[in-house]
Write a structure and sequence with these properties.
By secondary structure, this protein is an alpha/beta fold. It is built from seven helices and twelve strands. InterPro entries: C-N_Hydrolase, C-N_Hydrolase_sf, De_GSH_amidase, UPF0012_CS.
Length: 263
């Protein structure tokens, strides 16, 4: 059994404030017995009045923000995932999903699908990744990594499921708009149900984004949910439920098409 925590909060424009919120959530998740904490996307800084904030706030992985979180993680078995903007060295950034545990960085995944939709253009400042992330093992289960807009592209989730993922993790900053909460719930649920995987999706809340963090099991049942306000919610990722779902709904075995190549 893997216990996951979703830490939902509104990101401020000051990285020190956001780092402290993350540390507080890490401590609460650990105290609650979580093996994995999933935080939102873009947690270094947020300012909806400044479209250049991702460039101004970006830090390398040895910068003060990540150093603070790595120090806070020392001595703990809790794995923590979040997305930060990292300078490319060419005046742009990578939107990078980082996993840390016990003072070490375990994974880095550069977001493949950039949010050039609904009047926004993430690719103005962000360079897309080019590699499918490898799976990470936590508490005996295999975890696949995705970020926000990736959830609209079922081929990535399917590839991770075929690679052996039991759980798909999705940090996000899902922008408000007409029917956007419905889009979020339908897409997160679909990725779980069509791949018979758990999905743990954490959304940033606040003035711009919807929050609505949720865990969906491999038969499409929502087992944990947050609203529009800051929250920390917990859910169990149950291997027996996973095995049952794949026995009664063997979609991965029944498929007739090979997965498309990515990257």
């Amino acid at each position: 059994m893997l216990k996951v925590a979703l830490g939902q909060f509104a990101v401020s424009r000051v990285w020190e404030e956001n780092a402290q919120v993350c540390v507080d959530l890490m401590e609460r998740a650990s105290a609650g017995g979580a093996d994995l904490l999933v935080l939102p996307e873009g947690i270094l800084a947020r300012d909806i009045t400044d479209p250049q904030i991702v460039l101004k706030a970006a830090q390398p992985l040895d910068g003060p923000f990540m150093t603070r979180l790595l120090e806070a993680s020392r001595g703990s078995s809790l794995a923590t995932m979040m997305c930060v903007h990292i300078p490319t060295g060419e005046g742009r950034v990578w939107n990078t999903l980082v996993t840390l545990q016990d003072g070490k960085i375990l994974t880095q995944y550069r977001k493949l699908h950039l949010y050039d939709a609904f009047t926004m253009k993430e690719s103005t400042n962000v360079t897309p990744g080019t590699e499918i992330p490898p799976l990470l093992e936590i508490a005996g289960l295999r975890v696949g990594l995705m970020t926000c807009y990736d959830v609209r592209f079922p081929e990535l989730a399917r590839r991770l499921a075929l690679d052996g993922a039991d759980l798909l993790v999705l940090p996000a900053a899902w922008v408000r708009g007409p029917l956007k909460e419905m889009h979020w719930e339908v897409l997160v649920t679909a990725r779980a149900l069509e791949n018979t995987c758990y999905v743990a999706a954490t959304g940033e809340c606040g003035e711009r984004n919807i929050g609505c963090s949720m865990v969906v099991d491999p038969l499409g049942v929502v087992t944990a949910r947050a609203g529009e306000a800051p929250a920390l919610v917990f859910a169990d990722i149950d291997p027996e439920r996973l095995a049952h779902a794949r026995n009664v709904l063997p979609v991965l075995a029944n498929r007739r098409f090979a997965p498309p190549e990515l990257g």
